[in-house]
Specification:
Strand content: 35-45%
Shape: globular
CATH superfamily: Hotdog Thioesterase
Strand order of the largest sheet: 1-2-3-7-8-9-6
Low-confidence stretches: none
CATH class: Alpha Beta
Distance between the termini: 7 Å
Number of helices: 3
Mean pLDDT: 93
Number of strands: 9
CATH architecture: Roll
Amino acid sequence: MKVISKQRNSRMCVVCGMDNPIGFRAQFYNMEDGSVVTPFRYQEEHQSFPQRVHGGLIATMLDELGLRAMWTKSSEDVFGVTMSMDVKYRKPVPYGEELLGRGIVVKDTPKFAVIKSEIMDRKGIFLANAEVKYIKLEVEQIVQDVNPHEEMCYLIEDGVTEILF
């Protein structure tokens, strides 16, 4: 599927932070169907049990895909916080291999958004999915004295024009 544009990465977010030594360093692409996609890889440090990723870190990626999906409908100036998330763990999620995360907005209002997010392997097998509900808030309502443009400071051009899934 065709990539329309790329989203910014932060400095220290556990999911997208490029300066976080134990983070996922995931990069997010806005797709032609209105979804957001990230090819990413969990590391051994993200395990709960050998060969398995910790469920909380799986939910963390599903949650991040929610906010990132909201940005496909607006801009990176729209923020929000998770109100609820219903996660389904379908199969064990491995570390050390490339996976795909995908999020798409299924309902959008001026104050709220509902997102369907999922993680699959490169064979297209669904490993986990969630329905995430967000409330949209101004940055100042979430955190004080932080400039989101300084935190979300990396736009890594990589020439990716298509992601197959």
